[in-house]
Amino acid sequence: MKTLKTRFTDLTGVLFPIVQEGMGPFRTARLAAAVSSAGGLGTVSIPGMTSAPDVGARDMRAQIDEVMTLTSAVFAVNVPVGTTESGEMMPVSAAYVKAVLDARDSDPAIARQLRVLTTSAGFPGMFRDRIKESGIVHMHKVGSTRQALKAEAAGVDVVIASGYEMGGHTHASPVHTFVLIPNVTAKVRVPVLLSGGARDGRTLAAALAMGAEGVAMGTRFIATHENEWHPTYRQKIVDAREGDDTLFPSVYGPGRGLKNQGVEKLRELIDSGEMSAQALNEWKDKALIRAQSEGDIEDGLIAAGQVASAIDSIVHVAEFVPRMAEEACEILQALGQRVRG
Ligand SMILES: Cc1cc2nc3c(=O)[nH]c(=O)nc-3n(C[C@H](O)[C@H](O)[C@H](O)COP(=O)(O)O)c2cc1C
Questions:
Q1: In this structure, what CATH number is given to the domain that contains residue 147?
Q2: Has residue 184 been placed in a domain?
Q3: pLDDT, tens digit, for every residue of 130-160?
Q4: Distance 219 CA to ligand 1 centre (A)
Q5: Interval between CA 108 and ligand 1 midpoint (Å)
Q6: Domain limits at 281?
Q7: Pocket (CB within 6 angstroms of ligand 1)
Q8: Which of 32, 72, 104, 284 reaches 20 to 30 Å from 62, CA-CA?
Q9: What is the pLDDT of residues 3-23, one digit of tens each?
């Protein structure tokens, strides 16, 4: 079997430089275990953006424990770090980061497998020392070169550079993957993962050509048999065409998803001015969870990236992940043969 060795695989010990990135706010425990077992890096996601901190921490720990029963491979947890109006870390975000670090402290087996913490949205400044001391690999997702340099200066081990076409929360400034990734890889020294629009071996090969050390995908992994979300959501990704995506005001900033009645309803609610910011956030959180857990793709919110337009089948993770790496190897070898002189 052909495989790829990069600074990312060296750092984390995974076989393939292919990450299933966090996809909250419902659950991705089974998907994470499947991706990690297949040789990639699977990621547990936050169970809710507006949960009470103790409930959120308990749910997060339950997902970590579930992954531990399903795989003996290395896995990650993602925590988007929301901030309050006064600029502090949201209590639920702090509870999630603490749950990850506490889980590692509580059990050496968890510490061996839960090797990566991925943060996004804001930076978990108040946990910086504890993250360093714990020895966990800290990846942080950014949408600009400025943010990438800031994350590197703050001591992160890996930068995930994600282009504007990504699914879920995207960025305030619209820099797309093809421009962002070479910008970032030219400026930072830590390993960089490409995120936003990756889907197959061709995009993995392109990521490496742009100086990245691997890819972090969301949308592609929704349409897998191992993803425990409602089948209607997975099918909606398969059915999506170019132009079916839109932006909507999500909890931490702009979010990308598929056009539907739910997005229209959200716009009406915002325009009416009747709901407080907190009530609106709870509405969005519930609408995202309803789509993922119950398949409410009419009135729920369907987070997804532009790459949904390229996904035309529901795949098995155990076949897909190694095949993607192999396809990238074949492309890189074939391209090498074109070089003359
Ligand atoms: C349904 C969905 C939910 C997401 N939820 C999160 C999340 O909880 N935290 C986070 O950092 N990113 C989240 N993202 C972004 C992904 O982690 C990833 O960066 C993105 O999907 C990459 O772009 P792609 O969709 O083109 O692969 C989400 C994406 C999707 C599609």
A1: 3.20.20.70
A2: yes
A3: 999 999 999 999 999 999 999 999 999 999 9
A4: 7
A5: 29
A6: 232-294
A7: 21-24, 45-46, 78, 80, 120, 141, 162, 166-169, 195-198, 216-220, 303-305, 307
A8: 284
A9: 899 999 999 999 999 999 999
